[in-house]
Each structure stands twice: as C-alpha cells, then as structure tokens.
Amino acid sequence: MVAGLAITIGGVIKQLARAYEAKAIAATDAERIAAEQRIEALRARRDVLVSGGWIPAAIQAAFAVPFIIYLWKLIVWDKVLGLGATDGLGEYETDIGQAVIAFYFLTAGAARVAKIIRR
C-alpha cells in the first residue's frame, strides 16, 4: 500500500510534467486551454494525495506511537543504559513497523516534492 501511494504521487507528478510540456508546445488557444485545465486537475489530485488533515494525522500517530515507544525503550533503556532486555518483535509486528516508518518518510518526501513543484 505504501509503495502504491508513492507510485500514485509519482504518476501524478509525471503527468503534470507532460501537461506543462503540452501547454508549452500548444499551437492553438484550445490546446493551451485544455492543457491548463489538465494542469489544474492534476494539481488538485496531487494536493489531495499529499495533504491530509487532523483525522489522518491522528490515525498515523496512533500507529506510530507503539513503535516509537518500543524503539526508544530498546535503544535508550536496553542498549545505552544496559538496564533491561526487550523481547524482539514477531515477523508481523516487524513488517507493520517497517511499513509505518516507510510511510512517514515517503509522505514527507512526497510533500517536499509537491512544494517544489508548486513554486
């Protein structure tokens, strides 16, 4: 799912680039207007994919908090201070944790790319 999100955002960005090229080489006003309309539609799609709101942010945080707590305990308490021994995560939990971390980094990168394109 995370990879699908990145592909979707990447696809929209590629389509935006092609739409800008179409606008630049438009021979008639009708072609230029059609390209501008396509650009606006793609910008709106990009903004929806990148933006969120407080509800998605709360859901993302709810998934991330257990992994943040686990990693802090593992690194600070167990490894740095040497005060404990934490059991390892199961395969399923490890996969979920990796997906959560990857999602955060992918969405942050996509948001930066979107801001650059908006300029």
In short:
By secondary structure, this protein is mainly α. It has helices at residues 2-24, 29-50, 54-80, 91-118.
Fraction in helix: over 70%
What structural class results from the helix and strand content? mainly alpha
The arrangement of helices and strands along the chain is HHHH
User: Unreliable stretches, pLDDT < 50, 5 or more residues?
Assistant: 1-7
End-to-end separation: 29 Å
* Biggest beta-sheet profile: none
Mean pLDDT across every amino acid position: 80
Task: Give the radius of gyration.
Answer: 21 Å
Shape: rod-shaped
Count of alpha and pi helical runs: 4
Strand content: under 5%
User: How many beta strands in the DSSP annotation?
Assistant: 0
Describe this structure in words.
The chain has 119 residues and is an all-alpha fold. Helix content is 84%, strand content 0%. The protein contains four helices and no strands. The chain has helices at residues 2-24, 29-50, 54-80, 91-118. Helix 3 (54-80) packs across helix 4 (91-118). The radius of gyration is 21 Å and the shape is rod-shaped. It starts with a helix and ends with a helix. Residues 1-7 have low confidence and may be disordered.
Defining key terms:
119 residues; mainly alpha; 0% strand
SSE blueprint:
Layout: H1 2-24, H2 29-50, H3 54-80, H4 91-118
